Target: Extracellular solute-binding protein
Amino acid sequence: MKKSLLVMSGVLLLSTALTACGSKQDNNTAATDSGKQGTASAPVTIKVQGWYTEAQGNWNKTVEAYNATHPNVKVVYESMSEKGDSQEGMKKLDLLAASGEQMDVVMYSSASDFAQRVGAGILEPLDSYLKKDNIVVKDEYKLDPVVDGKYYALPGKMIEWFVLLNKDKLDAAGLKVPTEWTWNDYADYAKKMTSGDGASKVYGSYFHNWKDYALLAQNNDMNNAYLVKSDGTENIDNPRVRFSLDLRNKMENIDKSSVPYFEVVSQKMAYRDVFYAGKTAMLATGNWMVGELSQNAKFNTVFAPYPKYDAKDENGLTEVGADFLGIAANSKNKQAAYDFIKWYTTEGIQTQGLFFSAWKKADIAKNVDAILASGKPDQVKFIDKTSLLSTLKVNKSTKLVVPPTYALQQEKEFLTQVELYLTGKQDLDKTIATAKAKIEDIRKSNAK
Model:
Protein backbone atom coordinates (compact mmCIF):
# COMPACT_ATOMS: atom_id res chain seq x y z
CA MET A 1 0.00 0.00 0.00
CA LYS A 2 1.27 3.47 -0.82
CA LYS A 3 2.44 5.62 2.03
CA SER A 4 -0.58 7.56 3.26
CA LEU A 5 0.41 9.43 6.38
CA LEU A 6 2.94 11.97 5.23
CA VAL A 7 0.49 14.85 5.30
CA MET A 8 -2.01 13.52 7.88
CA SER A 9 -2.90 15.35 11.02
CA GLY A 10 -1.29 14.60 14.35
CA VAL A 11 -4.54 12.98 15.39
CA LEU A 12 -4.34 10.40 12.66
CA LEU A 13 -0.66 9.82 13.24
CA LEU A 14 -1.37 9.12 16.88
CA SER A 15 -4.34 6.93 16.07
CA THR A 16 -2.19 4.92 13.70
CA ALA A 17 0.30 4.21 16.44
CA LEU A 18 -2.40 3.25 18.88
CA THR A 19 -4.29 1.03 16.52
CA ALA A 20 -1.08 -0.60 15.35
CA CYS A 21 -0.38 -1.56 18.94
CA GLY A 22 -3.89 -2.89 19.32
CA SER A 23 -3.73 -4.90 16.13
CA LYS A 24 -0.53 -6.84 16.72
CA GLN A 25 -2.38 -9.63 18.48
CA ASP A 26 -3.77 -11.55 15.43
CA ASN A 27 -4.97 -8.78 13.23
CA ASN A 28 -7.04 -10.75 10.73
CA THR A 29 -8.40 -13.78 12.50
CA ALA A 30 -12.10 -14.64 12.42
CA ALA A 31 -12.44 -13.48 16.01
CA THR A 32 -12.57 -16.65 17.99
CA ASP A 33 -10.66 -14.78 20.70
CA SER A 34 -11.40 -11.07 21.15
CA GLY A 35 -14.88 -11.41 19.65
CA LYS A 36 -16.27 -13.91 22.12
CA GLN A 37 -20.02 -13.60 22.60
CA GLY A 38 -21.41 -12.65 25.98
CA THR A 39 -23.54 -14.77 28.22
CA ALA A 40 -27.15 -14.22 29.25
CA SER A 41 -25.96 -12.67 32.52
CA ALA A 42 -23.16 -10.61 31.02
CA PRO A 43 -23.84 -9.62 27.40
CA VAL A 44 -21.07 -8.16 25.30
CA THR A 45 -21.52 -4.42 24.78
CA ILE A 46 -20.44 -3.04 21.43
CA LYS A 47 -20.60 0.56 20.29
CA VAL A 48 -21.75 1.73 16.88
CA GLN A 49 -20.32 5.18 16.22
CA GLY A 50 -21.40 7.53 13.46
CA TRP A 51 -22.49 11.12 12.89
CA TYR A 52 -26.24 10.70 12.55
CA THR A 53 -28.61 12.27 15.03
CA GLU A 54 -31.50 10.10 16.13
CA ALA A 55 -33.90 12.05 13.92
CA GLN A 56 -31.62 11.51 10.91
CA GLY A 57 -30.74 7.88 11.53
CA ASN A 58 -33.39 6.15 13.65
CA TRP A 59 -30.49 4.29 15.23
CA ASN A 60 -32.03 3.57 18.63
CA LYS A 61 -34.89 1.65 17.04
CA THR A 62 -32.43 -0.16 14.79
CA VAL A 63 -30.09 -1.37 17.53
CA GLU A 64 -33.08 -2.29 19.72
CA ALA A 65 -34.32 -4.57 16.94
CA TYR A 66 -30.93 -6.27 16.83
CA ASN A 67 -30.67 -6.55 20.61
CA ALA A 68 -34.11 -8.16 20.80
CA THR A 69 -32.93 -11.12 18.71
CA HIS A 70 -29.36 -11.26 20.02
CA PRO A 71 -29.60 -11.50 23.84
CA ASN A 72 -25.87 -12.10 24.26
CA VAL A 73 -25.00 -8.75 22.74
CA LYS A 74 -25.95 -5.21 23.67
CA VAL A 75 -25.44 -2.74 20.84
CA VAL A 76 -25.29 0.97 21.75
CA TYR A 77 -25.32 3.79 19.21
CA GLU A 78 -23.23 6.91 19.84
CA SER A 79 -23.61 10.01 17.69
CA MET A 80 -20.45 11.98 17.03
CA SER A 81 -22.28 15.15 15.95
CA GLU A 82 -25.20 16.97 17.51
CA LYS A 83 -25.82 18.59 14.12
CA GLY A 84 -25.63 15.37 12.13
CA ASP A 85 -22.55 16.72 10.34
CA SER A 86 -20.53 13.90 8.80
CA GLN A 87 -17.24 15.84 8.71
CA GLU A 88 -17.53 16.77 12.37
CA GLY A 89 -18.26 13.11 13.04
CA MET A 90 -15.13 12.02 11.18
CA LYS A 91 -12.96 14.32 13.28
CA LYS A 92 -14.41 13.00 16.53
CA LEU A 93 -13.95 9.40 15.41
CA ASP A 94 -10.28 10.20 14.76
CA LEU A 95 -9.99 11.63 18.25
CA LEU A 96 -11.54 8.49 19.72
CA ALA A 97 -9.06 6.34 17.83
CA ALA A 98 -6.19 8.48 19.10
CA SER A 99 -7.40 8.36 22.71
CA GLY A 100 -7.75 4.59 22.85
CA GLU A 101 -11.41 4.72 23.91
CA GLN A 102 -13.75 1.86 23.05
CA MET A 103 -14.56 1.60 19.37
CA ASP A 104 -16.22 -1.38 17.74
CA VAL A 105 -18.34 -0.55 14.68
CA VAL A 106 -17.33 2.66 12.92
CA MET A 107 -18.92 4.42 9.97
CA TYR A 108 -17.43 6.62 7.26
CA SER A 109 -19.46 8.73 4.87
CA SER A 110 -17.38 8.58 1.70
CA ALA A 111 -14.93 6.37 -0.12
CA SER A 112 -12.13 8.91 0.41
CA ASP A 113 -12.80 9.20 4.17
CA PHE A 114 -12.90 5.42 4.38
CA ALA A 115 -9.72 4.93 2.33
CA GLN A 116 -7.76 7.38 4.47
CA ARG A 117 -8.66 5.50 7.67
CA VAL A 118 -7.65 2.23 6.05
CA GLY A 119 -4.27 3.80 5.40
CA ALA A 120 -4.11 4.97 9.01
CA GLY A 121 -4.59 1.41 10.28
CA ILE A 122 -7.82 2.27 12.10
CA LEU A 123 -9.84 -0.54 10.48
CA GLU A 124 -9.64 -4.31 10.82
CA PRO A 125 -9.55 -6.44 7.63
CA LEU A 126 -12.79 -8.41 7.18
CA ASP A 127 -11.56 -11.05 4.75
CA SER A 128 -11.36 -13.93 7.20
CA TYR A 129 -14.85 -13.19 8.56
CA LEU A 130 -16.28 -13.04 5.05
CA LYS A 131 -14.55 -16.24 4.04
CA LYS A 132 -15.92 -18.03 7.10
CA ASP A 133 -19.46 -17.00 6.08
CA ASN A 134 -18.89 -17.74 2.37
CA ILE A 135 -19.71 -14.13 1.45
CA VAL A 136 -18.48 -12.79 -1.89
CA VAL A 137 -18.96 -9.05 -1.52
CA LYS A 138 -19.41 -8.17 -5.19
CA ASP A 139 -22.09 -10.86 -5.49
CA GLU A 140 -23.92 -9.82 -2.32
CA TYR A 141 -23.76 -6.01 -2.62
CA LYS A 142 -24.22 -3.43 -5.38
CA LEU A 143 -20.91 -1.82 -4.40
CA ASP A 144 -17.51 -3.44 -4.11
CA PRO A 145 -15.39 -1.46 -1.59
CA VAL A 146 -12.19 -3.44 -2.03
CA VAL A 147 -8.90 -1.72 -1.11
CA ASP A 148 -5.67 -3.24 -2.43
CA GLY A 149 -7.36 -6.63 -2.66
CA LYS A 150 -8.75 -6.58 0.91
CA TYR A 151 -12.05 -5.66 2.53
CA TYR A 152 -12.16 -3.31 5.49
CA ALA A 153 -15.85 -2.40 5.38
CA LEU A 154 -19.25 -3.34 3.99
CA PRO A 155 -21.59 -0.78 2.41
CA GLY A 156 -24.55 0.35 4.50
CA LYS A 157 -26.85 2.85 2.84
CA MET A 158 -26.28 3.22 -0.89
CA ILE A 159 -26.14 6.77 -2.10
CA GLU A 160 -27.35 7.82 -5.52
CA TRP A 161 -28.01 11.43 -6.44
CA PHE A 162 -31.04 13.24 -7.81
CA VAL A 163 -32.61 16.70 -7.63
CA LEU A 164 -35.21 17.83 -5.10
CA LEU A 165 -37.60 20.51 -6.35
CA ASN A 166 -40.02 22.67 -4.41
CA LYS A 167 -43.24 21.88 -6.29
CA ASP A 168 -44.94 25.12 -5.25
CA LYS A 169 -42.12 27.21 -6.73
CA LEU A 170 -42.03 24.97 -9.80
CA ASP A 171 -45.74 25.56 -10.39
CA ALA A 172 -45.42 29.30 -9.79
CA ALA A 173 -42.80 29.44 -12.57
CA GLY A 174 -44.99 27.38 -14.90
CA LEU A 175 -42.41 24.58 -15.15
CA LYS A 176 -42.95 20.84 -15.45
CA VAL A 177 -41.29 18.19 -13.31
CA PRO A 178 -38.22 17.12 -15.33
CA THR A 179 -37.92 13.45 -16.24
CA GLU A 180 -34.77 13.85 -18.35
CA TRP A 181 -32.67 16.99 -18.53
CA THR A 182 -29.18 18.45 -18.84
CA TRP A 183 -27.21 20.79 -16.59
CA ASN A 184 -28.00 23.60 -19.01
CA ASP A 185 -31.69 22.84 -18.53
CA TYR A 186 -31.11 22.91 -14.77
CA ALA A 187 -29.51 26.34 -15.04
CA ASP A 188 -32.49 27.57 -17.08
CA TYR A 189 -34.91 26.27 -14.42
CA ALA A 190 -32.84 28.01 -11.73
CA LYS A 191 -33.09 31.38 -13.47
CA LYS A 192 -36.85 31.04 -13.88
CA MET A 193 -37.36 30.14 -10.22
CA THR A 194 -35.15 32.86 -8.75
CA SER A 195 -37.11 35.73 -7.25
CA GLY A 196 -36.91 38.61 -4.76
CA ASP A 197 -33.99 40.57 -3.36
CA GLY A 198 -31.93 40.84 -0.20
CA ALA A 199 -33.03 38.78 2.79
CA SER A 200 -36.24 37.76 1.02
CA LYS A 201 -34.47 36.46 -2.09
CA VAL A 202 -35.24 32.90 -3.18
CA TYR A 203 -32.56 31.28 -5.33
CA GLY A 204 -33.33 28.71 -7.96
CA SER A 205 -30.35 26.58 -6.94
CA TYR A 206 -27.97 25.79 -4.11
CA PHE A 207 -24.57 24.08 -4.32
CA HIS A 208 -22.80 23.08 -1.11
CA ASN A 209 -19.04 23.31 -0.53
CA TRP A 210 -18.40 19.57 -0.99
CA LYS A 211 -16.27 18.25 -3.83
CA ASP A 212 -19.40 16.69 -5.39
CA TYR A 213 -20.63 20.17 -6.30
CA ALA A 214 -17.35 21.05 -7.99
CA LEU A 215 -17.69 17.97 -10.19
CA LEU A 216 -21.31 18.32 -11.33
CA ALA A 217 -20.86 16.91 -14.83
CA GLN A 218 -18.01 14.59 -13.83
CA ASN A 219 -20.34 12.88 -11.38
CA ASN A 220 -22.18 11.09 -14.18
CA ASP A 221 -19.10 9.83 -15.99
CA MET A 222 -19.66 6.08 -15.91
CA ASN A 223 -15.98 5.11 -15.80
CA ASN A 224 -14.66 7.56 -13.20
CA ALA A 225 -16.80 10.13 -11.41
CA TYR A 226 -13.99 11.09 -9.04
CA LEU A 227 -11.30 13.78 -9.23
CA VAL A 228 -8.40 11.31 -9.33
CA LYS A 229 -7.90 7.88 -10.80
CA SER A 230 -7.31 4.80 -8.66
CA ASP A 231 -3.53 5.31 -9.02
CA GLY A 232 -3.77 8.87 -7.71
CA THR A 233 -3.23 10.66 -11.02
CA GLU A 234 -5.47 13.63 -11.75
CA ASN A 235 -8.86 13.35 -13.41
CA ILE A 236 -9.83 17.04 -13.52
CA ASP A 237 -8.29 18.42 -16.70
CA ASN A 238 -11.19 17.44 -18.90
CA PRO A 239 -14.25 19.10 -20.49
CA ARG A 240 -16.66 17.83 -17.81
CA VAL A 241 -14.84 19.43 -14.88
CA ARG A 242 -14.23 22.64 -16.79
CA PHE A 243 -17.92 22.77 -17.71
CA SER A 244 -18.93 22.15 -14.08
CA LEU A 245 -16.87 25.00 -12.70
CA ASP A 246 -17.83 27.37 -15.50
CA LEU A 247 -21.52 26.56 -14.92
CA ARG A 248 -21.24 27.33 -11.22
CA ASN A 249 -19.46 30.60 -11.88
CA LYS A 250 -22.17 31.70 -14.31
CA MET A 251 -25.04 30.68 -12.02
CA GLU A 252 -23.55 32.12 -8.83
CA ASN A 253 -21.69 35.21 -10.03
CA ILE A 254 -23.37 36.25 -13.29
CA ASP A 255 -26.98 35.01 -13.37
CA LYS A 256 -27.25 35.20 -9.56
CA SER A 257 -29.56 32.17 -9.71
CA SER A 258 -27.62 29.97 -7.29
CA VAL A 259 -26.49 30.85 -3.77
CA PRO A 260 -22.98 32.36 -4.09
CA TYR A 261 -20.12 30.25 -2.77
CA PHE A 262 -18.93 33.05 -0.50
CA GLU A 263 -22.30 33.13 1.27
CA VAL A 264 -22.35 29.34 1.64
CA VAL A 265 -19.00 29.26 3.45
CA SER A 266 -19.07 32.60 5.29
CA GLN A 267 -22.51 31.92 6.75
CA LYS A 268 -21.74 28.24 7.32
CA MET A 269 -24.94 27.30 5.56
CA ALA A 270 -26.48 23.87 6.06
CA TYR A 271 -27.94 22.64 2.78
CA ARG A 272 -30.92 21.00 4.50
CA ASP A 273 -31.89 24.20 6.26
CA VAL A 274 -31.63 26.24 3.07
CA PHE A 275 -34.03 23.88 1.28
CA TYR A 276 -36.45 23.45 4.19
CA ALA A 277 -36.61 27.23 4.65
CA GLY A 278 -37.65 27.66 1.01
CA LYS A 279 -34.54 29.72 0.23
CA THR A 280 -33.72 27.52 -2.76
CA ALA A 281 -36.14 25.97 -5.21
CA MET A 282 -33.82 23.09 -6.15
CA LEU A 283 -31.21 20.99 -4.42
CA ALA A 284 -29.04 18.34 -6.08
CA THR A 285 -28.42 15.85 -3.31
CA GLY A 286 -28.28 12.21 -2.29
CA ASN A 287 -31.13 9.78 -1.66
CA TRP A 288 -30.60 9.94 2.10
CA MET A 289 -32.80 13.02 1.91
CA VAL A 290 -35.91 10.89 1.32
CA GLY A 291 -35.75 9.64 4.89
CA GLU A 292 -35.02 13.13 6.16
CA LEU A 293 -37.95 14.58 4.22
CA SER A 294 -40.23 11.95 5.75
CA GLN A 295 -39.40 13.53 9.10
CA ASN A 296 -38.98 17.20 8.16
CA ALA A 297 -40.72 18.10 4.87
CA LYS A 298 -42.54 21.43 4.97
CA PHE A 299 -43.87 21.78 1.42
CA ASN A 300 -44.69 19.68 -1.63
CA THR A 301 -41.47 18.13 -2.93
CA VAL A 302 -40.91 16.37 -6.24
CA PHE A 303 -37.89 14.53 -7.63
CA ALA A 304 -35.98 14.61 -10.90
CA PRO A 305 -33.07 12.54 -12.24
CA TYR A 306 -29.54 13.86 -11.87
CA PRO A 307 -28.94 16.20 -14.86
CA LYS A 308 -26.87 15.03 -17.81
CA TYR A 309 -23.71 16.64 -19.16
CA ASP A 310 -24.76 16.15 -22.77
CA ALA A 311 -28.27 15.60 -24.15
CA LYS A 312 -27.02 12.44 -25.88
CA ASP A 313 -25.85 10.89 -22.58
CA GLU A 314 -27.79 8.10 -20.90
CA ASN A 315 -30.52 9.29 -18.56
CA GLY A 316 -30.15 8.87 -14.81
CA LEU A 317 -26.40 8.34 -14.52
CA THR A 318 -25.34 9.35 -11.04
CA GLU A 319 -22.30 9.14 -8.85
CA VAL A 320 -22.57 6.40 -6.27
CA GLY A 321 -21.49 6.34 -2.67
CA ALA A 322 -22.21 4.65 0.61
CA ASP A 323 -21.75 4.65 4.31
CA PHE A 324 -18.87 2.27 4.94
CA LEU A 325 -19.14 0.20 8.12
CA GLY A 326 -16.02 -1.45 9.48
CA ILE A 327 -14.56 -2.93 12.65
CA ALA A 328 -12.20 -0.77 14.67
CA ALA A 329 -8.79 -2.42 14.75
CA ASN A 330 -8.59 -1.93 18.51
CA SER A 331 -12.03 -3.42 19.24
CA LYS A 332 -12.04 -6.15 21.87
CA ASN A 333 -15.23 -7.63 20.43
CA LYS A 334 -14.49 -8.01 16.76
CA GLN A 335 -16.72 -11.01 16.05
CA ALA A 336 -19.71 -9.34 17.69
CA ALA A 337 -18.96 -6.15 15.74
CA TYR A 338 -18.76 -8.09 12.47
CA ASP A 339 -22.02 -9.92 13.17
CA PHE A 340 -23.81 -6.62 13.65
CA ILE A 341 -22.30 -5.15 10.46
CA LYS A 342 -23.40 -8.17 8.45
CA TRP A 343 -26.96 -7.92 9.84
CA TYR A 344 -27.23 -4.16 9.43
CA THR A 345 -25.98 -4.05 5.82
CA THR A 346 -28.56 -6.68 4.79
CA GLU A 347 -31.69 -6.92 6.94
CA GLY A 348 -31.05 -4.12 9.41
CA ILE A 349 -31.07 -1.17 7.05
CA GLN A 350 -34.58 -2.13 6.02
CA THR A 351 -35.64 -2.27 9.68
CA GLN A 352 -34.14 1.20 10.07
CA GLY A 353 -36.56 2.47 7.44
CA LEU A 354 -34.69 5.62 6.40
CA PHE A 355 -32.10 4.72 3.79
CA PHE A 356 -31.67 2.84 0.53
CA SER A 357 -29.82 -0.41 0.75
CA ALA A 358 -26.70 -1.54 -1.13
CA TRP A 359 -27.80 -5.17 -0.62
CA LYS A 360 -28.69 -6.76 -3.95
CA LYS A 361 -31.67 -8.60 -2.46
CA ALA A 362 -33.37 -5.37 -1.33
CA ASP A 363 -36.47 -4.28 -3.29
CA ILE A 364 -36.59 -0.56 -4.23
CA ALA A 365 -40.39 -0.19 -3.98
CA LYS A 366 -40.46 -1.93 -0.60
CA ASN A 367 -37.50 0.17 0.47
CA VAL A 368 -39.44 3.35 -0.35
CA ASP A 369 -42.55 2.07 1.45
CA ALA A 370 -40.48 1.27 4.55
CA ILE A 371 -38.93 4.75 4.55
CA LEU A 372 -42.27 6.49 4.16
CA ALA A 373 -43.90 4.24 6.78
CA SER A 374 -41.22 5.28 9.27
CA GLY A 375 -41.90 8.96 8.67
CA LYS A 376 -44.36 11.39 10.20
CA PRO A 377 -47.69 11.44 8.33
CA ASP A 378 -47.83 15.24 8.33
CA GLN A 379 -44.45 15.31 6.58
CA VAL A 380 -44.79 12.23 4.34
CA LYS A 381 -47.83 13.79 2.67
CA PHE A 382 -45.51 16.38 1.09
CA ILE A 383 -43.39 13.71 -0.68
CA ASP A 384 -44.41 12.93 -4.26
CA LYS A 385 -44.03 9.16 -4.42
CA THR A 386 -44.70 8.98 -8.17
CA SER A 387 -41.77 11.18 -9.20
CA LEU A 388 -39.58 9.59 -6.52
CA LEU A 389 -40.13 6.04 -7.81
CA SER A 390 -39.79 7.18 -11.42
CA THR A 391 -36.46 8.83 -10.63
CA LEU A 392 -35.12 5.89 -8.64
CA LYS A 393 -36.00 3.48 -11.45
CA VAL A 394 -34.04 5.42 -14.08
CA ASN A 395 -31.03 5.95 -11.81
CA LYS A 396 -27.92 4.10 -12.92
CA SER A 397 -24.84 4.16 -10.73
CA THR A 398 -21.41 4.99 -12.05
CA LYS A 399 -18.56 2.75 -10.97
CA LEU A 400 -17.48 3.12 -7.36
CA VAL A 401 -13.96 4.50 -7.15
CA VAL A 402 -12.17 3.68 -3.91
CA PRO A 403 -9.35 6.21 -4.21
CA PRO A 404 -5.82 6.08 -2.81
CA THR A 405 -5.53 6.46 0.95
CA TYR A 406 -4.18 10.00 0.52
CA ALA A 407 -7.08 11.20 -1.68
CA LEU A 408 -8.53 13.50 0.97
CA GLN A 409 -5.35 15.57 0.73
CA GLN A 410 -5.92 15.83 -3.03
CA GLU A 411 -9.56 16.78 -2.50
CA LYS A 412 -8.54 19.55 -0.13
CA GLU A 413 -6.06 21.05 -2.57
CA PHE A 414 -8.56 20.83 -5.42
CA LEU A 415 -11.26 22.58 -3.39
CA THR A 416 -8.81 25.30 -2.33
CA GLN A 417 -8.33 26.17 -6.00
CA VAL A 418 -12.06 25.92 -6.70
CA GLU A 419 -12.71 28.44 -3.92
CA LEU A 420 -10.24 30.90 -5.45
CA TYR A 421 -12.03 30.56 -8.78
CA LEU A 422 -15.59 30.92 -7.46
CA THR A 423 -14.62 33.98 -5.42
CA GLY A 424 -13.06 35.69 -8.44
CA LYS A 425 -9.42 35.47 -7.38
CA GLN A 426 -8.15 33.43 -10.33
CA ASP A 427 -9.39 32.24 -13.73
CA LEU A 428 -10.43 28.74 -14.74
CA ASP A 429 -7.20 27.83 -16.55
CA LYS A 430 -5.07 28.71 -13.53
CA THR A 431 -7.50 26.81 -11.28
CA ILE A 432 -7.15 23.60 -13.26
CA ALA A 433 -3.39 23.95 -13.79
CA THR A 434 -2.64 24.65 -10.13
CA ALA A 435 -4.95 21.90 -8.88
CA LYS A 436 -3.31 19.42 -11.28
CA ALA A 437 0.14 20.30 -9.99
CA LYS A 438 -0.93 20.02 -6.34
CA ILE A 439 -2.64 16.67 -6.95
CA GLU A 440 0.46 15.33 -8.69
CA ASP A 441 2.76 16.55 -5.91
CA ILE A 442 0.68 14.66 -3.33
CA ARG A 443 0.71 11.53 -5.48
CA LYS A 444 4.48 11.63 -5.82
CA SER A 445 5.04 12.25 -2.10
CA ASN A 446 2.98 9.14 -1.32
CA ALA A 447 4.58 6.91 -3.96
CA LYS A 448 6.57 3.87 -2.92
Q: What stands out?
A: The longest strand covers residues 154-166. Confidence is low (pLDDT under 50) at residues 1-35. DSSP finds 19 helices and eleven strands in the chain.
